[in-house]
Amino acid sequence: MTLDEKLSLVHGYFGASLKGAPPPMNATPPKEALGGAGYVPGVSRLGVPALQESDASLGVANGGNMRPGDQATALPSGLATASTWNPQLAHDGGAMIGTEAHAKGFNVLLAGGVNLARDPRNGRNFEYLGEDTLLAGVMAGESIAGIQSRHVISTVKHFAINDQETGRMTLSSDIDEKAMRETDLLAFEIAIERGKPGAVMCSYNRINGEYGCENDFLLNKVLKGDWAYPGWVMSDWGGVHSTVKAAMGGLDQESAHTFDKQDFFGAPLKAAVESGQVPMARLDDMAGRILHSMYAVGVVEHPPVKRDIDKAAHAAVAQKVAEEGAVLLKNEGGLLPLAAQAKSIAVIGAHADVGVLSGAGSSQVISYGGSALELPGKGAFGGLFKIVYHASSPMKAIAAAAPGAKVSFSGGQDIAAAVAAAKQAEVAIVFAEQWQTEIQDAPNLSLPDGQDALIAAVAAANPRTIVVLQTGNPVLMPWLSNVGAVLEVWYPGQRGGEAIANILFGKVNPSGKLPISFPQSEAQLPRPKIPGSELKFVLFGGNDPLFSVPYPEGSEVGYRGFEARGQKPLFPFGHGLSYTHFTYGGLKVAGGETLKVSFTLTNAGAREGMEVAQVYATPPGQQRRLIGWKKVALKPGETRKVEVSADPRLLAEYDVKAPGWRVSAGDYAVAVGASSADLRLNGASRVTATLLKP
Ligand code: GLC
């Protein structure tokens, strides 16, 4: 390759032109660009195709006027996928969106978001996979593997500790190396091992003062050194701050260079190579990594072929994720499932007559059938995005499930009307919503727009009140003791309405479990106030104020923090009810270099169901953590033996000096159960001391 050919591979463009959007999103892309988030020219002389890049983890993103008129299958949110605890389903979801990307002409999906939910108000938690290192890493890795099985490169992002949206372009995530390695980085490591993503997207934020896309420690020492990652590092859109420092710091490609304060990997990089500031060997490595991934994923031999999409089959995948990802939080007196013979049902709120809510930002998908409703976005940057409802009406699906019932709808703004409807109905179903978007965090944990008052009033009018939550994060529930049932469906995607009705009427037995703790209040959080929330930021504001986000909780993220601080959450990590119940027995724990755990699981109820049996370990002197799980489908009365072995890194502390994963000798307690707080079996075993390489 000539110098210019190598340089062309490492210098990307924004691939779309969003009419009406503020700069830089309204720039005119190269004519060859397909209209996705990114475009990188190929080298036709050598048969190297261009990179046509689309967002993202929840489908082939086309929101915000991206390719006007384009539609795609909307997967449920990442939190829904994580709530399934079903790695195969994560893989299937990835394969489905990978197929759609390929059929639309894209060979890169900017998916694989795996940032841990260190803050339950992070506006992008809906795109990610919760608070636990192992669960997030496994589910991200499987989704990435699914996408790449369709010869579409996936990314894993945003590397690293990009765990809040407030001030994301300039904040510094300040955290010690031991904690970083044991949590956020280990989630990335597990995702990379399982999914082998062709690219890693470095993050906007600084980590201990160094920007993610020029962070020599993260990119060269950890990712390419310790982990021997063979693929390439692409910047986030507007995440580059230098030429030589970034290139030598491990960045391999500048994405959408018009989003940066200046062009860093165009002429300036050529000059740096020609002057020797960036050795030719480094440029060869940059280009080589990109080519490595293109060949490894089969992008060259299996170029995208524009073709029709099996929308029904894809919608079925989305529906299965929604059904297995719905979490039944409360079900007093068996209020659910509802009888199909119900006579009158009041459906209230959240535009449930027309559709289901989705999250916003670069991951936005306009689903097949088109949006049922689009409303102006809210909040500091919310005006950038629309509040989009996918055309899958819960009310229509409920009416279809109870053909003899009189089903009414009240919007919810008029509480008196909602109360009157609830009074006249056998059962009231209140849909509550929390819209979340990239670029801004939730101001607090409360449901917005007076929904708490609505729910309380409806519950006072009808004791048989069910709340269906469509949220992008955990929310507070001041009305919880007054309602009969609560079902968290997150953003349920292309067939969300049908999935919700199938669960409410028992056609599907809920099996979802929380991938994120629901706090009792903000006071329980390591950062009661979101750092930087008092500052002002601009869009893609490279000159935004610099500030620190300290992470004193270290490795004790989510439930581990609640337990370390002796706090009881509203609903614990791993919680989720079923229409049947399961018993656990026969625990055996074997020690040695790691823990091998076996036990039996029985469906002791009258209907078939799936249980996510969770295994937690407590190393001597450390906090308890998840070391494995199995999701098991059982018929009534059926018993199955379950075995789980721990990845030793999950038992270890990261020893920065050694360096490596130090597993201490000692007795390790093991607990098995239906959630982090509902543990049915307890045991222990001795583990021998080992030191594993980083
Ligand atoms: C965004 C996001 C990133 C996305 C990229 C392209 O700002 O941070 O997740 O893939 O830009 O849209």
Explain how this protein is built.
With 694 residues, this protein is α/β, with parallel strands linked by helices. Among the domains are: 1-41 and 207-299, Glycoside hydrolase, family 3, N-terminal domain (TIM Barrel), CATH 3.20.20.300; 322-504, Glycoside hydrolase family 3 C-terminal domain (Rossmann fold), CATH 3.40.50; 582-692, Sandwich (Immunoglobulin-like). 24% of the residues lie in helices and 23% in strands. The protein is built from 15 helices and 30 strands. The chain has a seven-stranded mixed sheet with strand order 1-2-3-4-5-7-10. It has a six-stranded mixed sheet with strand order 11-19-18-17-12-16, sandwiched between helices. Strand 8 (206-207) and strand 9 form a beta hairpin. Helix 4 (133-148) packs parallel to helix 5 and helix 11 (394-401) runs parallel beside helix 14 (496-504). The longest helix has 19 residues, at 177-195. It is globular and about 80 Å long. The mean pLDDT is 97. The structure holds alpha-D-glucopyranose (GLC).
The helix-and-strand class reads: alpha/beta
Shape: globular
Mean pLDDT: 97
Question: What is the CATH superfamily of one domain?
Answer: Glycoside hydrolase family 3 C-terminal domain
CATH fold-level assignment of one domain: Rossmann fold
Bound molecules: alpha-D-glucopyranose
Biggest sheet overview: 7 strands, mixed
Helix content: 10-25%
Number of strands: 30
Q: Which architecture of one domain per CATH?
A: 3-Layer(aba) Sandwich
- Poorly predicted parts: none
